[in-house]
């Protein structure tokens, strides 16, 4: 089986920033309800401190870019939460889709919408949890090996 080629360039990613039928993407930084955010993170299984409401609210409040996917009834289906200067770099910290909505292209769409918003001069960096490590290359994302970390205490 051959590996998916890397999808290079802003225009290629921006062209994918189209929500699947029945869904809409929106920027919701400063507006997304922390409880709603926490519910989607919890449902997705993303390892975040979902039992610490104050910490989840602070995480959301400190984000410079929050892109959401909602269904036609307004239910939150997925979230891409990032830190960016909108000029040079963007760290996509959380990408989560409620399992009830997975398999429809929302994850890829949220990544593409994030890239569309940050623009062509801004790179997007995502650090993956272990399980989806094989999923991102299938989207055409480039794997990187360089990096260093100082881990959080809790």
Automatic annotation (TrEMBL):
Gene3D superfamilies: 3.40.630.30. This is GNAT family N-acetyltransferase. It comes from the Bacteria. It holds the Pfam family Acetyltransf_7. Residues 66-140 form the N-acetyltransferase domain.
